[in-house]
């Protein structure tokens, strides 16, 4: 029997959507349905794989150019464009939040919850509509200036599904509300990073190492403005953990020696 070849690595983007709550910084988490082939039952941020049309150069763009994002994530400019577009598209698809506004950069579209918006969100999900087509049809531009590079994780070889994921941080735009619109989630919550980590430690909120670690990075910040201002400097070093079984539990071990206790089985 021919041994299996290397698992292909898919490019992906995910977004730490932030807001200021009554007790401080809050982040938006989705719990993926248990039937999902990857990370079923896990709490995670909105995000997903890059679509071929995410690199459409006809899309109107406000903010740092693709060259700046390429420097932040250590990739070429086309992939950088695809990743930023995927971050905006996936946030709209999975949370009903659109990081877009007039092409002059004068603001952000205030409300995207109507029936016409929902029809276009569904068309995006079905890949019947591209992000560039949606924005052009409404005279809007992608607001890359509302995003910050936050982390870069690569799924390690033991996994059967591998992703090279760039993490972005963004503030929830004024006038918009994150909504549980993803058919891939059975729960959507705003929570403080500390509360989410406490639930994970108690076993009630399983999460994968990238989510656990980035929540830990967010936890010290008092509010969303501080978190966005405190985004790690570019270029971001990619993190690909190894796994360790010990008598007291299972751990993901990061390149710097940080050990993250896991409440899910290690990869086979």
UniProtKB/TrEMBL annotation:
Swiss-Prot/TrEMBL keywords = Hydrolase, Magnesium, Manganese, Metal-binding
| Obligatory cofactor(s) | Mg(2+); Mn(2+)
Which PROSITE patterns has this protein been placed in?
NUDIX
Nudix hydrolase domain residues are 8-213
Q: Write out the GO MF terms.
A: hydrolase activity, acting on acid anhydrides, in phosphorus-containing anhydrides; metal ion binding
List the PANTHER family hit by this protein, alphabetically: ACYL-COENZYME A DIPHOSPHATASE NUDT19 (PTHR12318:SF0), TESTOSTERONE-REGULATED PROTEIN RP2 (PTHR12318)
Q: What is this protein called?
A: NUDIX hydrolase
Question: What taxonomic lineage is listed for the species of origin?
Answer: Bacteria, Bacillati, Actinomycetota, Actinomycetes, Geodermatophilales
């Amino acid at each position: 029997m021919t041994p299996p070849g290397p698992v292909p690595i898919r490019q992906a983007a995910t977004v730490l959507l932030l807001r200021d709550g009554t007790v401080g910084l809050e982040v938006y988490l989705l719990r993926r349905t248990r039937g999902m082939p990857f990370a079923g039952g896990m709490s995670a941020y909105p995000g997903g794989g890059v679509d071929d049309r995410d690199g459409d150069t006809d899309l109107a763009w406000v903010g740092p150019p693709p060259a700046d994002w390429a420097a932040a994530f250590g990739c070429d400019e086309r992939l950088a464009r695809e990743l930023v577009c995927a971050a905006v598209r996936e946030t709209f698809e999975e949370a009903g939040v659109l990081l877009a506004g007039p092409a002059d950069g004068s603001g952000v579209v205030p409300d995207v919850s109507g029936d016409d918006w929902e029809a276009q969100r569904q068309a995006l999900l079905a890949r019947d509509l591209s992000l560039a087509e949606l924005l052009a049809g409404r005279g809007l531009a992608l607001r890359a200036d509302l995003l910050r590079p936050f982390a870069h994780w690569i799924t390690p070889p033991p996994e059967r599904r591998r992703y090279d994921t760039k993490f972005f941080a963004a503030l929830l735009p004024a006038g918009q509300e994150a909504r549980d619109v993803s058919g891939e989630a059975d729960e959507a919550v705003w929570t403080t990073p500390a509360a989410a980590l406490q639930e994970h430690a108690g076993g009630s909120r399983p999460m994968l190492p990238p989510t656990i670690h980035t929540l830990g990075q967010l936890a010290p910040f008092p509010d969303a403005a501080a978190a966005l201002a405190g985004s790690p400097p570019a270029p971001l070093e990619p993190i690909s953990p190894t796994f360790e079984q010990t008598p007291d539990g299972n751990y993901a071990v990061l390149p710097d020696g940080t050990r993250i206790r896991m409440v899910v089985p290690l990869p086979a």
